[in-house]
Backbone:
């Protein structure tokens, strides 16, 4: 018998019982019996991320190590993610779009969401199949960035200029994203000021006033960043959201998935994942590679000069996102957060991004 969503949605790690695991597996095979569950770890950030070992009598094809995402146990993260329903968006993505995405992702075991009740996502732990998870503060090499960009070009080309009003795309471009942008602009200034204060020496003092002016003009700038050709984007391409197997990347954490300009993903990747020295040496060749890859996948309208210009102004968002993460607190391990603030601040300074955005 299939389990209902009310039986599958949980709010706290203590609810991850043998009975619950049995209900999850009932949707795969009613003949499998769960004998025990063992809570391995709980990591609290924008969500609560849990590793669970499940003993069952199924075949080896059915994972015994699960990765589970629940609403965050910290009030700060819940407050910032509740209205835009970030976990619910990720559940929707896995339920409706994952089969169209030409990327390696963690295999889905269960995704359930119900307004007013909550959301629960259960994936196979990628480490069970020999993959290695990335970490948020990790510095990627130029070769790793090259591999990710190749995958991003394939992904972006798959959804290039799709009609956002058609299901199942509408939910990723509709009212919930407009609400998120409004909230982001409403709280941009106080959060930017708090983030800059907490970041200390990681952000050059010369960037402080332009960064606050950017926050004051955030709505105009977000409109500017959305002017390019639209496609499905990941929107959170920092090094902790990848896994690696046989030197090839897989993609994790789809809470921020949406329609947007494709180069935004590349800018987020290079600003947060590369040390400044590496980025300075390789960013132009990497953008050229991205352009060529899009062309090879049938997107002939793009050229390097335009992509380079758009890349530079999109560097503002990873800088903002990392500072807001720090300002809110409880959403990311502190040292990793500071490391990515330092990297993204260097990218903004190198490219004089605030001058390009005409921030007064």
Residues:
């Amino acid at each position: 018998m299939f389990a209902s969503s009310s039986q599958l949605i949980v709010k706290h790690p203590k609810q991850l019982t043998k009975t619950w695991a049995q209900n999850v597996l009932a949707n795969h095979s009613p003949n499998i019996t769960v004998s025990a569950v063992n809570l391995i770890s709980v990591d609290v950030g924008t969500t609560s991320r849990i590793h669970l070992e499940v003993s069952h009598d199924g075949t080896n094809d059915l994972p015994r190590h699960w990765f589970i995402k629940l609403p965050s146990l910290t009030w700060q993260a819940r407050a910032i993610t509740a209205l835009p329903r970030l976990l619910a968006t990720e559940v929707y993505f896995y339920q409706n779009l994952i089969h169209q995405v030409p990327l390696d992702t963690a295999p889905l075991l269960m995704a359930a969401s119900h307004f007013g009740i909550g959301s629960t996502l259960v994936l196979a732990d990628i480490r069970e199949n020999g993959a290695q998870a990335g970490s948020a503060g990790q510095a990627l090499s130029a070769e790793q960035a090259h591999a990710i960009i190749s995958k991003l070009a394939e992904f972006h080309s798959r959804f290039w200029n799709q009609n956002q009003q058609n299901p199942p795309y509408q939910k990723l471009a509709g009212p919930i994203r407009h609400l998120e942008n409004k909230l982001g602009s409403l709280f941009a200034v106080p959060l930017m000021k708090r983030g800059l204060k907490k970041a200390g020496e990681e952000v050059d003092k010369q960037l402080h006033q332009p960064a606050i002016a950017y926050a004051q003009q955030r709505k105009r700038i977000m409109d500017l960043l959305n002017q390019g050709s639209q496609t499905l984007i990941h929107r959170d391409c920092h090094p902790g959201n990848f896994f690696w197997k046989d030197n090839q990347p897989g993609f994790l954490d789809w809470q921020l998935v949406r329609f947007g300009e494709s180069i935004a993903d590349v800018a987020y990747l290079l600003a947060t994942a590369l040390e400044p020295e590496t980025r300075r040496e390789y960013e132009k060749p990497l953008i050229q590679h991205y352009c060529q890859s899009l062309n090879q996948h049938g997107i002939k309208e793009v050229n390097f000069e335009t992509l380079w210009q758009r890349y530079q102004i999109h560097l503002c968002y990873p800088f903002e996102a990392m500072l807001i993460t720090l300002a809110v607190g409880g959403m990311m391990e502190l040292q990793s957060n500071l490391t990515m603030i330092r990297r993204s601040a260097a990218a903004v300074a190198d490219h004089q991004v605030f001058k390009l955005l005409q921030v007064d």
User: Anything to note?
Assistant: The beta strands are 34-44, 47-56, 65-71, 108-114, 118-124, 132-133, 230-233, 242-245, 248-251, 258-261. The longest strand covers residues 34-44. Residues 276-296 form the longest helix (21 residues).
